[in-house]
């Protein structure tokens, strides 16, 4: 919205600053951060009053989690609210990729909100049936995939870009839409599975989003793409503003989610943020790189898949408990120890993912 102030600029005044994506990204970050600090306490108080007993705790979960009983959920409303406000205020609203990513974020957030509401109102951990959530997620992802494909340059439409190999494109044809759907839905559910400890999911989300924001800015500038020898996707640079808002909102939320958490993000936040990561990857043609920068989420999801398949076939378990962060809890690791070590792993993976921009 504020970008339109450039209409008043003659090129040498303060309004000219709004032409720069980096300046507006800084504004989005600060706006989202302040939003989190201002609205965090009243939102938590409202959630605590409305939810009563808070988020239901799994009966088969780690013993230490029963002490968290009564903690309110749906804290993702704070992140999504900060993200939406900052993006609408600072991003160019004539950019189709901004609207595509916002659409995915809000739509998955609504699915998560319905799931959280069902859990809190019924006081059980079931929520919305998994098949319903997946069906709605795939419908949203299909719309987003088609949306992105329409605005990709002609030479990149329905193509899968392979990192490291600078000219390698795989033509997926009509399979691009299903592939992109899997990327978006998979990212949303992988982040959802990771959100099991105080502060565990939000920092890796911010780290992965930060890496994708740098990539979006780079592939959206023709001079950078020529230097780095990566594929140019016009318009994606504006997603840096969205990512900055996500980082600011995420930090604002982490202030209240740090151990011991005053609020959980719930599916409202985890599904929305995971969907956003997948949508950015699809928009920038970096779907494979998402699996690297978001490698922690991949491992968390795979640990559940492996556990379920192996148990059904043998009646035995590979892990003491899945997702894998619960496995380490069962082994006796302290919660802060698991969280911080997983943060470190996320940062390392993000740096490896960013390295693919230059390694050609």
Helix percentage range: 55-70%
Q: Which value, in Å, is the CA radius of gyration?
A: 20 Å
Strand content: under 5%
Major sheet characteristics? 2 strands, antiparallel
Low-confidence stretches: none
- Give the count of structural domains: 1
The count of β-strands is 2
The first-to-last residue Cα distance is 38 Å
Order of helices and strands: HHHHEEHHHHHHHHH
Main sheet: strand order: 1-2
Please state the overall shape, judged from the principal axes of the Cα atoms. globular
In short, what is this structure?
This protein is mainly alpha-helical and 360 residues long. It has helices at residues 21-51, 76-90, 96-122, 130-151, 176-194, 202-219, 222-228, 239-257, 266-284, 287-293, 295-314, 324-330, 335-355, and strands at residues 159-161, 169-171. It has a two-stranded antiparallel ribbon with strand order 1-2.
Description:
This protein has one domain. It is 64% helix and 2% strand. The chain has 13 helices and two strands. The protein has helices at residues 21-51, 76-90, 96-122, 130-151, 176-194, 202-219, 222-228, 239-257, 266-284, 287-293, 295-314, 324-330, 335-355, and strands at residues 159-161, 169-171. It has a two-stranded antiparallel sheet with strand order 1-2. 49% of the residues are buried. The model has no long low-confidence stretch (mean pLDDT 92).
Protein topology:
Blueprint: H1 21-51, H2 76-90, H3 96-122, H4 130-151, E1 159-161, E2 169-171, H5 176-194, H6 202-219, H7 222-228, H8 239-257, H9 266-284, H10 287-293, H11 295-314, H12 324-330, H13 335-355
Antiparallel strand pairs: 1-2
Helix pairs in contact: 1-2, 1-8, 2-3, 2-8, 2-9, 3-4, 3-9, 4-5, 4-9, 5-9, 5-11, 6-8, 6-9, 6-13, 9-10, 10-11, 10-13
């Amino acid at each position: 919205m504020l970008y339109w102030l450039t209409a008043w600029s003659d090129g040498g005044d303060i309004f000219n600053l709004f032409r720069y994506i980096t300046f507006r990204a800084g504004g989005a970050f600060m706006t989202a951060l302040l939003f989190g600090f201002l609205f965090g306490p009243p939102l938590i108080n409202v959630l605590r009053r409305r939810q009563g007993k808070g988020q239901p705790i799994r009966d088969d979960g780690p013993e230490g989690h029963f002490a968290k009983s009564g903690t309110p959920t749906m804290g993702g409303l704070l992140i999504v609210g900060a993200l939406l406000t900052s993006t609408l205020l600072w991003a160019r609203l004539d950019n189709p990729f901004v609207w595509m990513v916002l659409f995915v974020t809000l739509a998955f957030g609504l699915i998560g909100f319905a799931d959280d509401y069902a859990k809190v109102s019924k006081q059980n951990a079931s929520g919305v049936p998994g098949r319903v959530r997946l069906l709605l997620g795939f419908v949203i992802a299909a719309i987003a995939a088609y949306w992105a494909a329409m605005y990709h340059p002609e030479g990149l439409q329905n193509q899968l870009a392979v990192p490291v190999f600078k000219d390698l494109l795989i033509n997926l044809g009509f399979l691009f839409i299903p592939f992109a759907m899997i990327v978006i839905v998979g990212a949303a559910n992988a982040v959802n599975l990771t959100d099991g400890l105080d502060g565990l999911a939000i920092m890796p989300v911010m780290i992965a989003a930060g890496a994708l924001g740098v990539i979006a800015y780079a592939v959206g500038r023709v001079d950078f793409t020529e230097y780095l020898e990566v594929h140019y996707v016009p318009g994606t640079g504006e997603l840096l503003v969205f990512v900055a808002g996500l980082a600011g909102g995420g930090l604002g939320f982490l202030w209240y989610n740090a151990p011991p958490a005053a609020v959980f993000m719930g599916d409202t936040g985890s599904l929305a943020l995971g969907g956003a990561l997948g949508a950015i990857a699809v928009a920038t043609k970096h779907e494979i790189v998402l699996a690297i920068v978001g490698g922690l989420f991949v491992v968390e999801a795979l640990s559940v898949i492996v556990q379920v398949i192996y148990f059904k076939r043998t009646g035995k378990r590979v892990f003491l408990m899945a997702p894998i962060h619960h496995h380490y809890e069962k082994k006796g690791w302290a919660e802060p120890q698991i969280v911080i070590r997983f943060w470190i792993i996320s940062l390392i993976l993000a740096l490896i993912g960013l390295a693919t921009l230059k390694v050609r």
